[in-house]
Amino acid sequence: MDDDAKQVVEVAQETGVGCGVCCWPDPDILGLKKYNYKWLCMPSLPCFSKDGVPPPVFLAKDEKLPLLLAIIMGLQHALAMVAGIATSGGLLIAGDACFDFQKDSEMCNSKGYLVSAAWITSGFLTIIQVFRCRILKTKYYLGTGLISVMGTSFTFLPIARDMVVSSIMEAKVAGECIGLDCPGAGMKGYGRFLGTCMVAAFLEIFLAMLPPRYIKKLFPPVVTGCAVMLIGGGLIGSGIKYVGGGVFCADNMEGKHAALGFGPQLCNENGDVVLRFGAPQYIGLACTVIFFTPFLQFFGSPFLKSTSLFFGLLFGMIVSGLASYEAVAGDQTMCSAEPGKPCVGGFASATVGKAYSYWNSDSIEESKSFTFLWDNDPNPLRFLGFDPEYFLPILIGFFISTAETVGDIGLSCDASEIPSEGDDFDSRIQGGLLGDGLNSFLAAIMTSPPNTTFSQNNGVIALTRCASRAAGFACAG
To answer: Is the C-alpha dihedral spanning 215, 217, 222, 227 positive or negative?
Structure first.
């Protein structure tokens, strides 16, 4: 690269690294002047093409997208991670406090708030990673400048759950409970978890400040590659659980029977239809998305190929909204669907022959009209503390999260067709690690577990061939 080119790059970096991709929206909202919609909307027929199915058009990281296209591309990233954030951000942590044998009514009732806080936090912190800016008068960057979408890390989920449950059990031993309920005990454990994470987050911030040669020695490609591969394997497992009816019922399918002597654990994440994990009805609905998405990749127009994930999920939602399940003898349903029948454990007996929908509005009706950070009683920050017993496991969690992030950024560069070596790549690794550490600290302040880059969004970039950061900002919004 000659001196003039280097100067242009340095100027671009100092002015926000292509901030124009989002700061000045294209007035052509639909992109009618920029794109040939006749070609974009023309279906492809593989059998009539000598070269097979053409891939979607590649959109580079600084490609300025029309508003409508940016929103659709961003929605694909959001839909790919929204369930994962909800699961690790509050559903399982607060859900553990809803069982009678380890109950904390305040923690259990905070489930909706914790999920909302996790989503809001993810949006704010994603903006930091995608934007990327140089720290004033230093050589350090904050953020990757790629579609590095942030979300609550599953690495810390077992630790958070253990701290909440242990706190409830300690309250039982100390006689601080009212019958089976230990109000506030689980929230105290969650507050100590957040406080300990705030301290441990400085490990990742410290690692981000190390020279690139030390980072490469600590996290060589074989280590980060294995970490990302294992994440992918874990995501496949999580996906299978969702196909079978939901993560919660999958995780507790055998455990409930072993612990309590009865089962199986019924799935309560699918509207008014309550069936056991792995029911054919759940698998059938999942298959509508699984098969429709590659169908669009084969026969869809260039526009549909780039947005196949969005329309695949939309198709599955439409089918689930139109479909229903006819109850047979012995079936259960949600209590709200049968208000006149006894409600036991959140379920009521289903009426034989009655059709039940895969959608209901229970969660919406139970939620506030408007929710924002810290808008919960009790506020988890009231119980903020430090737990030395869990400090080392959380510290190890941040070290693992660092390895994951290094691998994720490498894959993001590869999917975005950016060189995965050299000074520019090293600066993105450094900026991503600093963003991860700082964002995890901010996440705790926002009452959410530590955040990290989500690996599945690299798959979205590869499938849709859209690396434009405009999609990242739209996802965050």
So the answer is: negative
Strand blocks (E) in 42-187? 133-134, 141-142, 150-152
Instruction: Give me 252's structure tokens.
Output: 């507790």
Q: Cα separation of 176 and 158, whole Å?
A: 25
Which phi-psi region, left, alpha or beta, contains residue 17 (left: φ > 0; alpha: ψ -120 to 50)?
left
b vs e for 188-216, b when ≥16 Cβ sit within 10 Å of the residue's Cβ?
A: bbbbbbbbbbbbbbebbbebbeeeeeebe
Residues 6+ apart with CB under 8 A from 412: 144, 146, 147, 148, 453, 457, 458, 461
Global pTM reads: 0.81
What is the tens place of the pLDDT at every residue in 162-219? 999 999 999 998 888 888 889 989 999 999 999 999 999 999 999 999 999 998 888 8
Per the CB < 8 A criterion, the answer to whether 132 and 145 are in contact is: yes
Residue 325 pairs with which residues in a beta bridge? 356
The one-character DSSP state at 135 is P
Q: Please name the residue that has the structure tokens 């914790």.
A: 114
